[in-house]
Amino acid sequence: MRKFKLKYDEYTYDDDRLAGWVVTTVDRGIQHLDAKGFETNMCVREFMPQNIYKCNTLVSLMLVTVGIENPEFVVSLPSLKIMHLEDVWYYDDPLIMEKIISGCPVLEDFVLIRPIDFCNLDVLQFLRVRSLSLRSFRLTFEYSVSCTYFSVEIDAPRLEYLNFNDDQSDTIVVKNMTSLSMIDIDSEFNVKFGGSRLEPGDLRKRDIIRDFLTAISCVRHMIISRRTLEVLDRYSKLGPIPKFNNLYRLQAAFSRSMLQLLLVFLESCPNLENLILDFTVSTEPEQDGLTYVPQCLLSSLECVEIRELIMGEETGEKLVRYFLKNSVVLKKLILRFEDSSIANQDSDIFKELITFTKPSPSCEVIIIH
């Protein structure tokens, strides 16, 4: 047997029979195990049998809405390369995840979607992901109202891809990211809700954000959310944003009130070649921030794509003109408008953009609507 997929609900639930099936498949040398439980208002989960911790043949393991217990023996999963844990409870030992990962010497792909602690069980207050083999890691931990102090530590020298979406952990430590090639950040660093407000005197939170940015500064491709940039806007008033000298591709979501931060962040990317901006028209006042030119516009930026533009919206048009005017080596400017159809009175805007005097005469303007 190569693969066993188990999905049950409240009508087919039979704990003894389900556990027996898992035990049998593992004992028979299963390679791919996929078990998915059911959502319930009660704070209960069906716990997986502990023989899943000792399986020489298991290559991929997916557990969703189940429970796992801390084994009293050394975990041994010598063939496990892919592990997906979603809404999994493991509240009897804060270091259970570290124990499991240590028994997976060839683990390459790890997805952990942490459960919201509705039942005040203090599930996994301290998460440590330490692996010499891990290449891809996705962490999701959404904010919930809780007085519990959570922390996360990631130490993976071979990690190439990190998807970081953690709004709950107050302490974040990232180490040995020398192989990191791509990162997708959507986190508020527990600043806006239950954690610190990142005031001028909050040196601890400032240092946590600074150390996180420094640890990932070797990345080559970054996707960063508007929520994260809003936090970095506060941070930039307390300390400098580290240089991302290797970053060649950046996708960022921002609004009209974040123009100044956009330039500050671009100044930290001196070798940027490709920039994608997801522009949002907000009710917040526009920042008068387009006052200087970052280094990348003068030497390396070759392609800019601005999405979700609205025809006639002043801030978006100002941003377009800014890149046309100041990007010395720009080869392509892609403008994506939300309007499904463009009225005749807008044709003058198109003509202006296409015929705009540019420092890079070979720049191609592509308008998509």
UniProtKB/TrEMBL annotation:
InterPro entries assigned: FBD (IPR006566), FBL13/AtMIF1-like (IPR050232), LRR_FXL15/At3g58940/PEG3-like (IPR055411)
Entries under Pfam families matching the protein: FBD, LRR_At5g56370
Domain (FBD): residue spans on this chain: 295-368
UniProt-recorded name of the protein: F-box domain
Species of provenance: Arabidopsis thaliana x Arabidopsis arenosa
